[in-house]
Amino acid sequence: MTEDENRKPNRELRPESGHQLRIAGTGAAITVGEQISAGGGGYLYRATDAFGTEWVVLWLISRWRESNLDQARLLLDAGSVHPAFCWPVDLVLDNELNESGILFPIVESRFQPMRKALESSASKFHVLWNVTTQLADAMDRLHDAGLCYPGLVDHEYRMFVDPNTGELSLIGWDAGSVCDTSTPYSGRLAPMWSNGEQWPSPNYDNYALAVILFEILLRSNPFHLLDEQSISSISWASDDDDPDLDESSSPTRVFVFDPTDASHRPDINDPVWMWWYVYPQFLRERFIESFTLGLSDPTRRVSAAEWHKVLNRLRHSSGSCHCGTLIIFDPQEPEKVCLGCGSTFGLDSGAS
Ligand SMILES: [Zn+2]
Fold this sequence. Notes:
Blueprint: H1 3-7, E1 20-23, E2 29-38, E3 42-49, E4 54-60, H2 62-78, E5 90-94, E6 99-105, E7 112-113, H3 114-120, H4 125-144, E8 147-148, H5 155-158, E9 159-161, E10 168-170, E11 179-180, H6 202-218, H7 228-235, H8 272-278, H9 281-291, H10 293-296, H11 304-317, E12 318-320, E13 326-328
Antiparallel strand pairs: 1-2, 1-5, 2-3, 3-4, 4-6, 5-6, 7-9, 8-11, 9-10, 12-13
The chain binds zinc ion.
Zinc ion binds at residues 321, 323, 325, 338, 340-341, 343.
C-alpha cells in the first residue's frame, strides 16, 4: 500500500493476498490470491479452495455492493441457464472485514479475448459456427429465463473464445452484466439508446447480438462509417452513471446494405462485399431486418431464438469446394458459384 493510496478518502476495505474468506453456502474456506483487475463493480481476485481448485472472487465496492449482491442472489436462485455464461457460484463472506463478495468459476487459460481468438482461427469456419450458435443459444435461454445481458454491449471485454474449438465463455463479473429487466444497468451504452428505448431488455440485447454476429461473420461493422473514435465520442464519453445521452450528437445510423438507402455502402474494394455474397439470402435477410426496421422498432429485431435457428441452418448448409473455399448452399440461389474457382455448386455437391 503506498502513501498516496492511504491518503485517499473513503478507501475501500478489501482482502489482501493470503486472506481467508468463507463460502456462504458451505462455510468452506477459500484463500484470496493475486488481484486480477479492478472494474466498475469491484476488485477481481484469484482464489483457491481447500482442494486446490482455482476460482475468481469479485470483491464488491461499497457503492454497488447491495445492488450487486441482490443481483447475484437473483442469478444464484435462477441457476446457470447456459454453460457459455460464467455464472456466479455462491457468495463469499469475510469475518474481519465484515463484507461480501461473489464467487465465480475461473475462465481457463485456453480461452482468449474473442477478437484475438478469431484472428488466429480466421479460416476455421467450424469455430465461427460454434461461437455464433452458442452465443444465440445462450441469449435465447437467458431471455427464456426472464433475464437479459446488457453487458453484451461491452462484448470486447466479456466474450472469450477457445480458438481451436470455438467454445464460448461470457463473463459477467461486474454490476448488472446479467440481470432481470428491472435492474438498472450502469455499464456503457450502445449509441442508439439515446432514443429512450427501454433497457435492459431482451430487445436491447437482440440489437447488440445482431451487431456482434455481423462483426463475427462478415468481419466488419454493420454501420461501417462509425469508426472506433466516433463511437467512443458519442456514447462512451465518460464514466457518468447517468444513462441519458446527448441526442444531438448521435449520428443517423444507416445499415451498409440497407436495400432502400445506398448512402452508406462500403467501398467497392472492401472485403465485406465478398462476405455479404458468400452468405445465403436467408442470413442476409435477417441482418437487413435487424438493421433497418429493427433500428427504430425494437419489436422488429430478430430474436435470439430466431438467430439460433438461422445459424444452425447456416452451419448445416456450409461446406468446402474442391478448391478449399467456403461454400454455403442456398436453395434460393441455385446458380451461385464458388468465389475461389468459379465452379457452380448445387445442393448435391456434397456439403460436409
Ligand atoms: Zn472452388
